[in-house]
Amino acid sequence: MRIGILGGSFNPAHEGHRHVARLARRRFALDQVWLMVSPGNPLKPARGMAPFAERLASAQAIADGRRIVATAIESKLGSRYTWVTLRRLHLLFPRVDFVWLMGADNLEDLARWQRWKTIAADTALGVLPRPEHNMEALAGRAAHRLRTARLPSRAASRLAAAQTPAWIFLPAAQNALSATALRAAKSAASATGAVTIDAATRSATNGEGQ
């Protein structure tokens, strides 16, 4: 079985996450994509972070429960760092080929993650484009250190079974929506009255917030 893991705060989950999950599942030939909600990202401030149950519920709202599945497994494992989580998942599911899915913004910051080289050594990396981050990510420290492990995008369907370290940057249609933009749009809209999630999404994608 081939499973892609899209980890994140999901504060909140939104249409951009669903777009990435669907795209990754199709292009990387995955059986499932897990939306793995982090109990707490060490690189993000706690201020402004919604409760875990609320963030998990937002991920469940964009999942279909079959091909795209929201999961609290990282919280249940009691791990805060990605390398620990992935090692435990490989032990728990030895017959599963995992792909760690990330946006180019995360590749840009990957060298700041604890034991990031262990992550790359253990698990294939599928990198999706993000507006305004692609060039910096591909020229960044992690991409440079892993340059010999980069596979061409035409090999995307074989990434899950590739010998690690292995990673692919996948050129694809991009969705500019971000959780930061969505929170900013909701905050601005709620200051003038009630706001729905759809209204906030439209506002965010129209450029209100970053």
Can you describe this structure?
This protein has 210 residues and is an alpha/beta fold. It has two domains: 2-173, Rossmann fold, CATH 3.40.50; 176-210, no CATH class. Helices cover 40% and strands 15% of the residues. It has helices at residues 15-27, 52-62, 73-77, 82-92, 104-109, 116-122, 134-138, 141-145, 179-190, 197-205; strands spanning 2-8, 32-37, 68-71, 97-103, 124-128, 167-169. Strands 3-2-1-4-5-6 form a six-stranded parallel beta sheet, with helices on both faces. The radius of gyration is 17 Å and the shape is globular. It starts with a strand and ends in a 5-residue tail after the last helix. The model is unreliable at 178-192 and 194-210 (pLDDT under 50).
Q: Assign the CATH class of the largest domain.
A: Alpha Beta
Per CATH, what is the topology of the largest domain?
Rossmann fold
CATH architecture of the largest domain: 3-Layer(aba) Sandwich
User: How many β-strand runs?
Assistant: 6
